[in-house]
Amino acid sequence: MKQIHRSLFTLMSLAVLFSCTKASLNYTEQGNWVGRATFSGIAMGAGTSFVINNIAYVGTGINPLTPHTKLQTMFSYVASSIPNKANGYDSAYGSWAQVASFPGQQRSNAVGFTIGNTGYIGSGLANDGATALADFYSYNAGANSWTEIDSIHGADSSYPRYDAVAFSFDTTAYVLTGTNQLYFFGDIWRYSPTTNTWIQQVAPPNPFSPRSGAVSWVYNNQGYIVTGYTPGSSTATGNLCYDFWKFTPGPDNSTTGWTRLRDIYNTSPQSYDDGYTDIERTNASSFLILGQPSGDKAYVVLGSANGIDVTYTWEYSMSQDLWNEKTPYESTARTGAVGITLSLPSPVTAGVATTRGFIATGLNQGSTAAFSDCEEFFPNQVYNQYD
Fold first, then answer.
1. Relative to the CA of 54, which of 269, 272, 324, 353 has its CA 20 to 30 Å away?
2. Is residue 56 a contact partner of residue 117, using CB atoms and an 8 Å limit?
3. d(C-alpha 282, C-alpha 227), whole Å
4. In whole angstroms, what is the distance from residue 305 CA to residue 20 CA?
5. Residue 36 near residue 79 (C-beta atoms within 8 A)
6. Domain ranges of the chain
């Protein structure tokens, strides 16, 4: 299995502290963050989410007031519809509602994904803050009920982890990377609900960085993974990954599914990446906003860089393989928030994107405080244009 042993790097020198002083804090970039309905549960972070039939489900995680009693509660979020306005501004807020609690043991830093009309949550970090988990559960929204499914394991061993990511497709999903506090994983596991089994796949090729706390998304039936923490990697700066990869699903154990994209750090002699100074981070959040006049885009926001929470928001163009900095997240910097992508109802007004991006919950550095706010991002508005 492709992995890095954490103890090999405990004597490494500390990275230079990340500077938060940037012109971007003057909000000169394009983009507008707009408040939405406050999360109905207690303030929390390091939770997870999935989407079924355009309803987001958010839960598990940490309440810092009781850090050794992690959460099982789950909530659904229904976004209010956007009126037919060219600016896409929505004056309503959406609504949260509690649903059936997650049935496994309390946890944080789990991973969630959707296959068809079923949501899944599994892996994560147990109450003791040390034990990584490998169990998984499926959620039936129509019945509002959970069912335990197969855990991540091979013939001879279980492979627990937390801070993993997932790619979900029409009939299968893949869980990859993460850590168990001893190792940082670079492996990938394929789940089929038809057989209720996990099958380990061929690991991504070198120089893919084993990592934890990355972000991922699926676009045009391809998975993307970027950012994360990886001690000692040749493709990292300050232990933050700068390698960026695209995955195309294929037959089990395919060795041809990975494509390396352009780095998210200034490693090229060309000028396009000269401004790539603060994309790298860990425990960030991501979402997609599709159907924009300028093309489909992914967004990476929040997270931690060298021990400091950041608000920098970056936009990625799948068609160009280029990044563009946008207005920073307007509320408090944080880590472990959930990113949510929801669709607009059809037909969509001309000039308005077909999906929407939200950020909710999160923790401050050190997990001493948590948040319950929820904000939506409008990438082509002027900052605070319609607040």
1. 324
2. no
3. 6
4. 10
5. yes
6. 26-378
Q: Residue 12 is encoded by which pair of tokens? A: 């490494």
pLDDT tens per residue across span 199-258: 999 999 999 999 999 999 999 999 999 999 999 899 999 999 999 999 999 877 676 799
Nearest to 177 by CA among 208, 217, 221: 208
Please say whether the beta carbons of 4 and 210 come within 8 A.
yes
Q: What is the DSSP letter of 161?
A: B
| φ, ψ at 9 (rounded to 5°) | -120, 10
Q: What one-letter code names the amino acid at 4?
A: I
- The rounded Cα 100 to chain-centroid distance in angstroms is 23
Query: How many angstroms separate the CA atoms of 140 and 117, rounded?
Result: 8
What SS3 class is residue 299? strand
Residues 6+ apart with CB under 8 A from 155: none
Neighbours of 15 (CB within 10 A): 14
Which residues lie closer than 8 Å to 349 by C-beta, 6 or more apart? 82, 84, 85, 86
3-state secondary structure 124-165: EECCCCCCEEEEEEEEECCCCEEEEECCCECCCCECCEECCE
Q: Tell me the C-alpha distance between 164 and 291, whole Å.
A: 29
CATH architecture classification, 26-378? 6 Propeller (2.120)
Contact (Cβ atoms closer than 8 angstroms) between residue 162 and residue 124: yes
